[in-house]
Specification:
binds protoporphyrin IX containing FE; Cytochrome p450; alpha+beta; 57% helix; 19 helices; 509 residues; two-stranded antiparallel sheet
Length: 509
């Protein structure tokens, strides 16, 4: 109880400080208010933040109006304060700000411009060098270029960096593995990595294949029935991945009675939906109940099918009694499901935009190795689209490559820009799966991260992505019917346009 009260007090103080910072920003950076108002990428990706900024701005205008009518003398100091905030932010945004105490160049701005500008990091590295300062919403941020440099930074300053916090952590006692620290991280990582091994993959491959078959067939059927003859792939890919994940993680088969309820609960707990906390907690309790029920009935079945949960239980016998473990699995299904569906969307997009490569895959012998065409297509898509950054926070101030990294600042090692380095990738903006016929080192190509925090789900991701694109290539003719520019999605990744529509027909044998 005392721990809980302590947590709530800390959270309230943190929220109040965040609120104050944002209020001063709204006051001091009216251009940010305009930006969040008109920018569609921010509308999609940060709806809650946008609402907040607009509300505070509205209140400030109201206050000015009321004071102008009832107490004009108070208005003058208020307006002076607003001008002071504006002047402060303009002064802080200078590239030279903090240079005297060793900070790198770059502009610590206010708000969402870095997020909505796809060239922000590339331009920043070109203008200021491999470490420059910027901002992520309220946080001042240091951007680091190069996987090699990032790996060195993490190695040399392991103790002075910590993982960034996840907004889901408040629903997970002990936090999400990805954001755990120290020995606890090592323990949970070891268990999870062990569970995501060959025994699980052999067991779940049929579920993955069935789920892909079902979803591709449904897309072709929907195209035949819809007057436009086309479907938007992404929502269907999300449904496909979540349905497969429910089976792989917990053993909920597609046609089980409780599966529809489980998937509906994911709509409530999803971060994008932003349901009230109380509703999320109720939904989580119900989901845990369904998981326990499913696990008990699977354990008493004649033929026991391994799931991620049962594989974890082999390594951590009291797994089901540990809220940290169960909640981690619940949210891992959520976060990795969205990432994998986003990847499949891009894999499909590039494949459809390069029909000659898709045709080659459809005609080719089924080669399975890491350099198979399907695997190369997935690697190339990860390189171009689905590897963004490795996020840390500075625990205590230190110096790296003659630059000071101050405590509490966010650090982002930009994998995306490193994957477009022309000295490693010839014609880096072209889609060319054949570049992966050559071997690359982990310091050149790292879509799943580096060091002891690298992704434990890389093999599972490749399994589903290669199975999916092989099924598409061998079973269907898929063509683009409508398209638009790429967008920053509600999952906070750049994604193909939501206007993108594809027509699916079953390929004649
Ligand atoms: C498109 C698919 C995916 C991509 C691009 C991806 C990428 C990454 C990256 C870059 C990291 C390292 C983050 C850092 O150092 O800050 C990471 C961590 C992690 N990923 Fe993935 N991931 C994907 C899918 C999955 C899947 C399917 C799972 C599990 C089912 C998974 C589980 C994890 C876990 C548990 C961590 C934290 C590891 C640790 O801290 O020890 N990921 N992922």
């Amino acid at each position: 109880m005392r721990l809980y009260c302590g947590f709530m007090v800390r959270r309230t103080v943190a929220m109040a400080r965040l609120g104050f910072r944002r209020a001063t920003r709204v006051a001091g950076a009216p251009q940010e208010v305009l930006h969040v108002f008109v920018n569609n990428d921010i509308k999609r990706s940060h709806p809650r933040y946008r609402r907040w900024v607009l509300r505070v701005f509205g209140l400030e205008l109201l206050l000015i109006f009321v004071l102008a009518v009832v107490a004009p003398t108070v208005l003058v100091p208020l307006l002076a304060t607003l001008v002071a905030f504006t002047a402060f932010y303009a002064w802080r945004a200078r590239s030279q700000w903090g240079r005297a105490r060793g900070l790198p160049q770059g502009s610590v701005g206010v708000g969402t411009r870095p997020i909505s500008d796809p060239d922000h990091y590339r331009n920043g590295f070109a203008a200021h060098g491999p470490i420059f300062k910027s901002n992520y919403l309220d946080l001042p941020m240091l951007c680091v270029e190069g996987i090699e440099r990032g790996t060195r930074l993490f190695d040399e300053h392991e103790d002075q960096l910590r993982p960034a916090a996840s907004p889901w952590n408040r629903f997970i006692p002990g936090g999400l593995v990805r954001w755990m620290d120290g020995d606890t991280h090592d323990e949970y990582r070891r268990i999870l990595a062990g569970a995501l091994g060959a025994r699980l993959f052999t067991a779940v491959q049929p579920s993955i294949d069935e789920g892909i078959d079902r979803s591709c067939a449904a897309m072709a059927e929907a195209c035949a029935l819809d007057p436009s003859g086309a479907v938007q792939p992404f929502p269907r890919l999300i449904d496909m991945v979540f349905s497969i994940w429910a089976d792989v993680f917990f053993g909920f088969r597609h046609d089980d009675q409780s599966t529809a309820e489980v998937l509906a609960i994911y709509d409530v707990i999803s971060l994008e939906r932003q349901s009230p906390d109380r509703e999320v907690r109720r939904a989580l309790d119900r989901l845990e109940h369904l998981i326990r029920q499913q696990h008990a009935s699977a354990a008493s079945a004649v033929e026991v099918r391994p799931t991620l949960l049962s594989e974890i239980e082999r390594r951590q016998p009291d797994a089901l009694d540990r809220p940290t473990t169960v909640r981690n699995l619940i949210y891992l299904m959520e976060s990795s499901g969205n990432d994998v569906a986003g990847l499949l969307n891009w894999v499909l997009k590039h494949a459809v935009d390069h029909p000659e490569i898709l045709k080659e895959l459809g005609q080719g012998s089924v080669d399975e190795g890491p350099k198979s065409l399907a695997n190369r297509m997935v690697s190339e898509t990860l390189r171009l689209e689905q590897s963004e950054e490795l996020a840390r926070v500075v625990r205590e101030t230190f110096t790296f490559e003659d630059q000071v990294l101050p405590a509490k600042w966010a650090v982002r090692v930009r994998v995306h820009e490193s994957h477009r380095d022309p000295s490693i990738f010839e014609s880096p903006n072209d889609y060319d799966p054949n570049r992966f016929l050559e071997s690359l080192t982990p310091l050149e190509y790292a879509p799943f991260g580096v060091d002891k925090r690298a992704c434990t789900g890389a093999s599972l991701t490749r399994t589903i992505a290669t199975s999916f694109i092989t099924k598409v290539a061998t079973g269907y003719e898929v063509v683009s019917i409508a398209d638009g520019p790429r967008e920053f999605s509600k999952f906070r990744h750049w994604a193909p346009s939501s206007e993108w529509r594809t027509s699916w027909t079953v390929r004649s044998p």
